[in-house]
């Protein structure tokens, strides 16, 4: 699949190459994540590894040690399967992001798609709660989006929930929510 | 194509702030926040933010606000920024040279650090000694590899006064040091250029490096020089004349944005014909073509006259853009084996379907099965791609219509 999708617009490609180079050269702040294209032939599908933010159920510090030495989630940022927008429109239009496998979180759809205002174009507003100032703009970047997602992991936004059951649980029984998250993450990491 | 090793110039080409203070930031501040490239035809909008003309025009056609600060903005707010443009063109020229110098500087430092720390410390101190009281004896001792003295013993007055360029000179010397430098301290001595290792007169070495190691232009006669000076102002006009030749009209005014939904097909065709644009494709193509043309044309006007492209060049650019767009709809399969593995299930289904149809129609089977099979095999994924792009085309039209209407004249 990847090979057939290697040709995007030149602008998008160059911009992504620049971003990738800066991410590899500069690294992420505090080494919280790494990101890059999945394969060498396709620059429009990226994969990112994120460390769970500290003091959240996504952070397994002190409880589990993982063989590779990283507490991380696999997550795909797919510049292609963006509904309603051309992939080559990046950076005019945002990309789409998905946790693979999905994680249990109020702002993440059960299929893993991330619902976050920074990835919504000013035109559409699925939840009617977001201010235009939080939306995508061409000066945003992969790095900024991932940082927003990390902060979203730490502090879910219950007003614009994507997983309603999870929202309810988070509001009513936070301890249970945290337990479920821990369990599912342990399972995903094969512990 | 191997994207991962492809070289994209970006600010991280320069070392971190601690090594080369300001250079990374400088390079970053010369870049458009939208495309990440050095500004091409930089323009400012009402909030003061700066972008490439083409980038901000495309962005404003999507959403009428500043991408950086989200203040309301409009195409009419766009103002060219010629000062920044000249700064960019100077930086474009200087960048490779500065990079080279920086790399050398880092190398020298590393070599010095390997040698001995003491020598390194002395070397750094040398900068102050050099301007106040150049004492070759103390410097001799400080040279990390003992080669230093030969270069240091040939101080020329011009070099000593050029305190600001010491870094440059140091580097130049450090690489030329193994060459038999004539230490006669006369300006007529030859030195080896640190970049192209060509022998150049000492007094010419600076201008030689400034010219990127190109041979000096042949000495111009006084008459030629004068005519050059006199013609300098006309340069833009000459370009204008060339443009006139290449195109039909010499219009310096930006084209207005149009609201295509209210136009009849014929009017749209006329608009395209007015600029010698092709009439291929359907109405959606025409609209996109015209919109892109207006964008390219107006962005071109934001360049300073000497940097402007001719209409023919712009047409070529438009053509390239359209080809890129249409190419995306076709799937190119490079990794055949991977593709086969990936779509094995689909192939199996197709084969199954072909078999069953062959059983039902045995006489035709021999003719139709193999030719029908081949295109079928490659068709499913491309068709899904086309579907996607079709959706998109419809969608972008709709959006374009919505966005356009408020901005229309």
UniProtKB/TrEMBL annotation, chain A:
It comes from the Eukaryota. Gene3D superfamilies: Ubiquitin Conjugating Enzyme. Keywords: ATP-binding, Nucleotide-binding, Transferase, Ubl conjugation pathway. InterPro entries: Ub_conjugating_enzyme (IPR050113), UBC (IPR000608), UBQ-conjugating_AS (IPR023313), UBQ-conjugating_enzyme/RWD (IPR016135). GO terms for molecular function: ATP binding; transferase activity. The active site is at 115 (glycyl thioester intermediate). Residues 11-190 form the UBC core domain. Pfam families: UQ_con. Belongs to the ubiquitin-conjugating enzyme family. PANTHER family: UBIQUITIN-CONJUGATING ENZYME E2. This is UBC core domain-containing protein. It comes from Gymnopilus dilepis.
Automatic annotation (TrEMBL), chain B:
It is found in: Nucleus. PANTHER family: E3 UBIQUITIN-PROTEIN LIGASE RAD18. GO terms for biological process: DNA damage tolerance; DNA repair; protein monoubiquitination. One of its GO terms (cellular component) is Rad6-Rad18 complex. PROSITE patterns: ZF_RING_1 (PS00518), ZF_RING_2 (PS50089). It catalyses: S-ubiquitinyl-[E2 ubiquitin-conjugating enzyme]-L-cysteine + [acceptor protein]-L-lysine = [E2 ubiquitin-conjugating enzyme]-L-cysteine + N(6)-ubiquitinyl-[acceptor protein]-L-lysine. This is Postreplication repair E3 ubiquitin-protein ligase RAD18. Pfam families: zf-C3HC4_2.
């Amino acid at each position: 699949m990847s090979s057939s999708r290697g040709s995007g617009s030149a602008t998008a490609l160059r911009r992504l190459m620049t971003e990738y180079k800066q991410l590899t050269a500069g690294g992420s702040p505090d080494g919280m994540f790494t990101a890059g294209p999945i394969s060498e032939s396709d620059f429009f599908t990226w994969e990112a590894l994120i460390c769970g933010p500290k003091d959240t159920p996504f952070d397994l510090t002190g409880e589990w040690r993982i063989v590779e030495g990283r507490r991380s989630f696999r997550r795909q940022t797919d510049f292609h399967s963006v509904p309603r927008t051309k992939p080559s429109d990046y950076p005019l239009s945002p990309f789409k992001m998905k946790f693979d496998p999905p994680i249990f979180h109020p702002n993440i759809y059960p299929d893993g798609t991330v619902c976050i205002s920074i990835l919504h174009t000013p035109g559409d507003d699925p939840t009617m709660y977001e201010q235009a100032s939080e939306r995508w703009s061409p000066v945003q970047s992969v790095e900024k989006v991932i940082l927003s997602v990390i902060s979203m992991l730490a502090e879910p936004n219950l007003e614009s929930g994507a997983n309603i059951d999870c929202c309810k649980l988070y509001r009513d029984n936070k301890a249970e929510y945290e337990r479920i998250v821990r369990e599912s993450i342990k399972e995903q990491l094969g512990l | 194509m191997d994207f991962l090793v492809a070289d994209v110039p970006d600010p991280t080409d320069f070392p971190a702030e601690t090594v080369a203070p300001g250079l990374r930031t400088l390079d970053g501040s010369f870049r458009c926040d939208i495309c990440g490239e050095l500004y091409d035809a930089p323009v400012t909008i009402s909030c003061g933010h700066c972008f490439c003309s083409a980038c901000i025009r495309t962005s404003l056609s999507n959403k009428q606000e500043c991408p950086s600060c989200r203040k309301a903005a409009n195409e009419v707010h766009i103002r060219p920024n010629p000062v920044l443009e000249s700064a960019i063109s100077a930086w474009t020229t200087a960048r490779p040279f500065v990079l080279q110098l920086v790399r050398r500087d880092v190398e020298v430092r590393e070599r010095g650090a390997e040698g001995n720390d003491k020598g390194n410390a002395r070397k750094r101190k040398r900068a102050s000694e050099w301007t106040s009281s150049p004492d070759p004896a103390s410097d001799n001792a400080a040279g990390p590899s003992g080669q230093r003295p030969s270069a240091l013993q040939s101080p020329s007055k011009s070099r000593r006064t050029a305190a600001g360029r010491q870094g440059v000179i140091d580097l130049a010397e450090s690489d030329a040091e193994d060459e038999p430098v004539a230490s006669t301290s006369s300006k007529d001595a030859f030195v080896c250029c640190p970049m192209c290792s060509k022998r150049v007169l000492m007094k010419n070495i600076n201008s030689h490096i400034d010219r990127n190691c190109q041979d000096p232009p042949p000495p111009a006669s006084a008459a030629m020089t004068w005519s050059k000076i006199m013609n300098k102002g006309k340069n833009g006009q000459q370009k204008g004349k060339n443009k006139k030749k290449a195109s039909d009209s010499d219009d310096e005014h930006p084209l207005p944005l149009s609201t295509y939904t209210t136009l009849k097909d014929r009017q749209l065709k006329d608009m395209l014909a007015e600029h010698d644009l092709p009439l291929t494709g359907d109405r959606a193509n025409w609209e996109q073509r015209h919109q892109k043309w207006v964008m390219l044309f107006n962005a071109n006007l934001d360049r300073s006259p000497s940097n402007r492209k001719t209409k023919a060049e712009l047409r070529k650019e438009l053509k390239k853009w359209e080809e890129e767009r249409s190419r995306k709809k076709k799937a190119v399969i490079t990794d055949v084996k991977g593709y086969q593995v990936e779509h094995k299930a689909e192939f199996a289904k197709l084969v199954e379907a072909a078999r069953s149809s062959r059983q039902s129609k045995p006489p035709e089977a021999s003719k139709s099965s193999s030719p029908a099979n081949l295109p079928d095999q490659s068709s499913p994924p491309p068709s899904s791609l086309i579907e996607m792009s079709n959706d998109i085309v419809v969608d972008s039209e709709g959006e374009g219509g919505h966005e356009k209407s408020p901005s229309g004249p």
